[in-house]
């Protein structure tokens, strides 16, 4: 029993090491620039086929990473709900919804890589990857869209959904690229703490959501 348990633990450790190495390389270099063999090598595996053994193929790796990141976001969201209850205004609701992603880089040692990986999914993803992302995010976005329809009843549905996708895209890239703030073309903008950055991001996004629309249903 002890020997079997040790083997299972070792296999689990190997899988996690491979997964975190893949996350770092994908975040740094992109989804299509890194081979499974290279991930195995950089993870220190002596078996060049280790990635195939644990994940089958690249899509299997990306699915496992999506599951890992989404579990962490869900845990953070649940903790925030327990801590502060359900917010009511558009601004407080938006801030509440965005906090798990905004706090991801600081909540896990791999959090910064996780944020950049999500940004890569938006930028580098092909049709198959987009389908995987949609499977995970559609239920959340549908709930968010319903909440926005109640807060912004005058906004046409198609415009609201387009703006919602702009919001999600901006947030994903913004959280991933926050390290750029010390050296922007407009100077060093890094002297805001995490909460203040989130406040400004929410204000920016709320302004876009609430802007009058020239399109009518």
Summarize this structure as a short list of keywords or feature phrases.
single chain; 217 residues; mainly alpha; Tetracycline Repressor, domain 2; globular
**What is the residue-averaged pLDDT?**
87
Which stretches of 5+ consecutive residues score pLDDT under 50? 1-8
User: What portion of the residues fall into strands of 2 or more residues?
Assistant: under 5%
Q: Any idea of the CATH class? A: Mainly Alpha
Helix content: over 70%
User: Main β-sheet: number of strands, strand sense, barrel status?
Assistant: none
Structural class: mainly alpha
Give the helix tally.
9
What overall form do the CA principal axes indicate? Answer: globular
Organism: Candidatus Marimicrobium litorale
Protein name: TetR/AcrR family transcriptional regulator
Domain PsrA tetracyclin repressor-like C-terminal: 97-208
Domain HTH tetR-type: 19-65
